[in-house]
Design brief:
Layout lengths: L5 H48 L2 E4 L2 E4 L6 E2 L2 E6 L5 E3 L18 E5 L2 E12 L3 E10 L4 H33 L1 H16 L14 H33 L1 H16 L4 H33 L7 E4 H12 L6 E4 L4 E5 L1 H18 L6 E8 L2 E8 L21 H4 L7 H11 L3 E6 L5 E8 L3 E3 L2
Parallel strand pairs: 10-12
Antiparallel strand pairs: 1-2, 3-4, 4-5, 4-8, 6-7, 7-8, 9-11, 11-16, 12-13, 13-15, 14-15
């Protein structure tokens, strides 16, 4: 059985709703028209009778209608009766064959057989004891013709109205659901082509579909980042773990094939341990970088006093005070993640100790210049040639692999740059052959508060 689309269901419900409203409108018009017609006739009767009252004169105690008196006007018949209820002037309508008692000032409906009348009696005084009755009659409005005509019009107009309502509802729902069609089409295209770079791209707005489209775009963006991070992690891990795995495998095969001495066996075990530690370090750093790229690692910021933070970090790392020096003369407060900032500083200091001169010096300093807070790590080593300075931020790149020993993986500086970007800053390098290196973390002024 074919499923009915949501658009078709909504269009059908809108059509039924509009048809119901049209029927209710017809019923309302029928009920209101009767009341309006009766009220109009009553007003006309009241106005005509009161107008005729001013045209009655009393001569020697007898009522005499003036020549301007209108016995029949605007459908109203006016009759003049004596106090004893004898007709003095006017002509009773032929269809009004009832003897209705007088009731001063009240309009009432009188049934005269086939015809219904609205009647109004008014007493006109002439002294204390004499006077005349003035009676007004008007046929009560019959709505049969109006009802008949309205029903005929409704029978013809209602189907046309429903057809127009159906067409309008279909057009409205089609336009209203157009963004949803775009979302479905984009999602289907992404699924078929596995292209996470595509976006729905709805115009910005506050309606539900615009918010839904924006949410899907953010979802696709996050999925794309996660997918790219996974590909990067897979490629990096497979590339960098191949060498230590091969070394471990070769060492194990050699140990099995040859009858090693206790000294050779210990050397093999030490080699396997070093390679395993190297693999563990590579995997740990790759996982950290991947989590940072995907946004799954907590990066909550908090106030950090930079000078005290650096001094405490050096104490915790037990750096040689004769080689590692902390310089921070001013008090600087920043917003940072202490764990990530610690990893950034540790990586820079360890690089400086590893690649600097043997027994060389390392300086860690913090200062404010212009609109930035600067955290610098300097060494007095051989420095990095200019042609290598842009490449050191790439994963696994090493200027001189022989200087890094077996434990180097070329992931420290890429992680440093990533942490700097998370803090809204960036890294720079000032170096040259034979003049040492100065790595500088630049933090924007918006994250800095100088304390007095």
């Amino acid at each position: 059985m074919k499923q009915i689309s949501v658009k078709a269901k909504i269009a059908a419900w809108l059509t039924l709703l509009m048809a119901l409203l049209a029927v209710l409108l017809v019923i309302f018009m029928l009920s209101v028209s009767s009341q309006v017609a009766v009220q109009t006739a009553s007003d006309q009767l009241t106005y005509t009778i009161k107008d005729n009252l001013g045209r009655i004169r009393f001569v020697q105690g007898k009522a005499q209608p003036a020549s301007s008196f209108r016995f029949y006007h605007n459908g109203v018949t006016t009759l003049v009766y004596s106090k004893s209820k004898s007709l003095l002037a006017g002509q009773i309508p032929v269809s009004f064959a009832v003897n209705e008692p007088f009731d001063n000032g009240r309009i009432r409906l009188v049934d005269a057989g086939e015809v219904h009348y609205l009647m109004l009696d008014l007493w006109v005084n002439n002294g204390w004891e004499s006077g005349v009755w003035v009676r007004g009659l008007i046929e009560a409005p019959e709505n049969r013709m109006f009802v008949s005509n309205l029903l005929k019009i409704s029978v013809v107009a209602l189907p046309v109205f429903m057809a127009l309502a159906a067409a309008g509802s279909s057009w409205i729902t089609h336009r209203a659901f157009r963004p949803l069609d775009s979302i479905n089409a984009t999602a289907a295209a992404i699924n078929e082509a596995s292209d996470l770079s595509r976006r729905i791209g709805l115009p910005p707005g506050q309606d539900e579909f615009s918010r839904l489209g924006s949410a899907f775009d953010r979802l696709f963006e996050r999925l794309e980042r996660s997918f790219e991070a996974e590909k990067q992690f897979t490629a990096d891990a497979s590339h960098e773990l191949r060498t230590p795995v091969s070394i471990i495998k070769g060492a194990c095969e050699y140990a099995v094939k040859y009858d090693e001495t206790e000294e050779d066996r210990q050397e093999t075990i030490d080699m396997i341990r070093r390679q395993a530690e190297k693999m563990s370090g590579i995997i740990s750093q790759l996982l950290r970088m991947t989590r940072l790229e995907q946004g799954t690692e907590q990066t909550g910021m908090e106030p950090v006093e930079l000078g005290e933070f650096l001094r405490q970090l050096c104490r915790e790392q037990s750096y040689d005070a004769g080689r590692v020096h902390t310089i921070c003369e001013e008090t600087i407060q920043i917003q940072a993640n202490p764990g990530l900032l610690s990893r950034l500083v540790i990586n820079l200091v360890e690089n400086a100790l590893k690649y600097g001169r043997p027994d060389g010096q390392v300086w860690i300093s913090a200062s404010c210049e212009q609109e930035e807070a600067l955290l610098k790590v300097c060494d007095d080593g051989d420095g990095i040639a200019e042609e290598h300075q842009e490449k050191i931020w790439q994963r696994f790149y090493q200027v001189d692999a022989s200087r890094s020993g077996e434990m180097g993986a070329g992931l420290g500086l890429p992680l440093v740059r990533q942490i700097a970007q998370i803090h809204g800053g960036y890294m720079t390098l000032a170096s040259g052959k034979g003049i040492g290196c100065t790595f500088t973390l630049h933090l924007p002024l918006s994250a800095v508060s100088d304390l007095e």
